[in-house]
Amino acid sequence: MPCAACLRFTDDAEIRKINREYRGIDRATDVLSFPSAAFCPSRTAGTAPQLLRREWDAEIKACMLGDIIISADHARMQAEEYGHSLKREIAYLTVHAMFHLMGYDHIREEDREVMRKMEEKALNKAGISRVDDDLLVEKAKEAMQFSYSPYSHFRVGACLLAADGRIFTGCNIENASYGVSNCAERTALFKAVSEGAREFTVIAIAAEKTMAWPCGICRQALNEFAPDLRVIVACGDERDEARLPELLPHSFGPSNGICEYLGKDETNDK
Ligand code: THU
């Protein structure tokens, strides 16, 4: 269901005033959220869709989740304190508040953990990850050192970033029976999927001799889980990148409607 929220930036003086007026707390804060729907405890927008539907706004053709107010003063201060960019801090505060608007809270430790994981996932999906491209390339180069390639002598390493923030590395593993060989990308992907990861945002691929774009089989394998994957290739100091749809146009995958799993088993969709 399409949803919308109203986001406003202000300063410490004004957010303090709003905090005092609406919550009886006379101090400035980083972010305030005012949900439109009153979800019962343990219910969220996802588990109480009827409540959400009442907030349908015909003009914007979306359910209005509520209002978010961010103090730019606080965001700037916190970005410096945490040593990350203002962009990341604002994205984090927005995502955090969005989850509040959808009925999540972090009073109990276990709820806090759930919320943290979802926040990280949302930020990763938006491409605002803690893990930057340099780190992914570095990890891919490290993985390349483990390449087992006595036949081609073409060493490749890959590093895949999952939407939940985990990273998985892999190298190419060849075989005396050539066809059995596995590329670095699929090694990383299969490691990841076998450890529960199902969504990915970026893969970095490092090769020693030339830049190595993923082979056709790897493109298809990656398309299964990450049809919009960002693909970075690196060789020495050289780097290039593309999106998977550019590398695998007119692809065939789960979106063709043959996948039973999609949207049915949320427990697997971590
Ligand atoms: N290879 C990869 O691991 N990834 C690529 O993107 C291209 C090729 C491996 C497969 C084989 O072990 C060697 O490189 C030569 O083809």
Describe the structure.
The protein is of the alpha+beta class and 270 residues long. The protein contains 9 helices and 9 strands. It has helices spanning 12-23, 49-53, 72-82, 86-101, 109-125, 133-144, 184-194, 216-225, 244-247; strands at residues 3-10, 31-35, 56-57, 62-71, 156-162, 167-171, 200-207, 230-235, 238-243. The strands form 2 sheets. It has a 5-stranded mixed β-sheet. The longest helix has 17 residues, at 109-125. Mean pLDDT is 92; it is low at 264-270. The structure holds tetrahydrodeoxyuridine. Residues 149, 152, 154, 156, 172, 174, 181, 183-185, 205, 212, 214-215 line the site of tetrahydrodeoxyuridine.
What is the topological layout?
Elements: E1 3-10, H1 12-23, E2 31-35, H2 49-53, E3 56-57, E4 62-71, H3 72-82, H4 86-101, H5 109-125, H6 133-144, E5 156-162, E6 167-171, H7 184-194, E7 200-207, H8 216-225, E8 230-235, E9 238-243, H9 244-247
Tetrahydrodeoxyuridine binds at residues 149, 152, 154, 156, 172, 174, 181, 183-185, 205, 212, 214-215.
